C-alpha cells in the first residue's frame, strides 16, 4: 500500500526514533508498504518518520544511482542492486574527507542543495529478520545511509546548510509545510486537515 509522505514542518520529522522490539507488529507489511511508497515517489531511501512513525527503521535501494554515467564502473556496480532494510541503526564512525553532493528529500520536494558529509560510515543495525550487522560503506552508498540515518535522529538535510542558505530557503520551506507545493506522489502536510 502506498502511504502518504510526511511533509517538512511535521513534528514527527524532528523526533529521535525509538528502537523496534523484535516482535514489532506487522513489521513485514510495514516494510513492504515503505518499499512501495518509496518506489512510487522515485526515491532511493525512505525512513519511518517520513511516513509518520517515530521509529528507528529506514530502507535504501541505490539502484537508480547506478545508471549515472559520471560514476566509475566500480561505483555503478556497488550501487546496482544495493537494497537493504536498516532497523535500530547506530552509526559507529564517520571518517574520511568531507565532500559536497546535491541532496534532496521526499519530505522536502523541489529543494536540492549541496550537503557536505564524510566519505565513509560504519553502521550497526539489524535487518528485517533481526539479524545483527556491522558494515562500512563509502561514497554515494555512505551518503544515502547517512541521509536516512539522520531522519531517525530527527535531522533533515536542510539543517546542514549555512545560515544564509537556510534564510534563502525559508519561504519555500514554509510553502511546503502549508501544502503550497505539487508533488508527483501522495503527501501529508502538517498545516492541512487532510493530505492530498
TrEMBL record:
Q: What class of enzyme is it?
A: hydrolase
Chain sites annotated for binding Fe cation: 105, 147, 151
Q: Is DNA-binding included in the keywords of this UniProt record?
A: no
Enzyme Commission identifier(s) = 3.5.1.88
Q: What is this protein called?
A: Peptide deformylase
Cofactor detail note: Binds 1 Fe(2+) ion.
Q: Which NCBIfam families match?
A: pept_deformyl, PRK00150.1-3
* Cofactor(s) needed: Fe(2+)
Matching InterPro entries: Peptide_deformylase (IPR023635), Peptide_deformylase_sf (IPR036821)
Q: Indicate the residues that form the catalytic site.
A: 148
A Pfam family for this UniProt protein? Answer: Pep_deformylase
